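User: For my dataset I need records formatted as: sequence, then structure tokens, nothing else. Please produce one.
Assistant:
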Amino acid sequence: MRAMQPAEPQPRRPARGAGSPEAPPPTVIVRHRRERVSKCSLEPLRGRPDLVFVTYPDEQPPALAGYVRLALHGPPLSRADAGCGLLLLDASWRLVRPMERRYREVPARSLPPLATAYPRSSKLAPDPPGGLASVEALFAAYWILGRPTAGLLEHYRWREPFLAHNRALLQQLRADRSGGSPER
């Protein structure tokens, strides 16, 4: 088994084109309007064809039938969800709770116990255990689903620590995704 390099890992299958019949719906990112754009880990990804950014509560997202919502609690996200669109709520933990109520009809999916590298320190509300920076959660979801991860962590300041802290789990997820062989 070859060790994963400290660079951003890539899936072992060809990327699906945005217009191909197999391509999943775009990922919808709903960012709370009170979230500071300067601290948003997803902002550098604006303009990617696989991502749609919506501001909460001002804008309505596209129809979310066939989507799953990344959440702390729920059944684990798996390859069975590969054809689904992803809904990612982007806000501080204090602000995300009302957003979750608005999108509760979208089935929740949780991520495995990855360690965040983002140095969080909220003075208003405690951060939940298992919480990730939004870009970390997006990367993990794409990794699990076998979607292309190229460029997702390119501008993330804590990219290297995130990948290093989670190397073993990411390798295990790759092995699970490819039917047991991490090199497939």
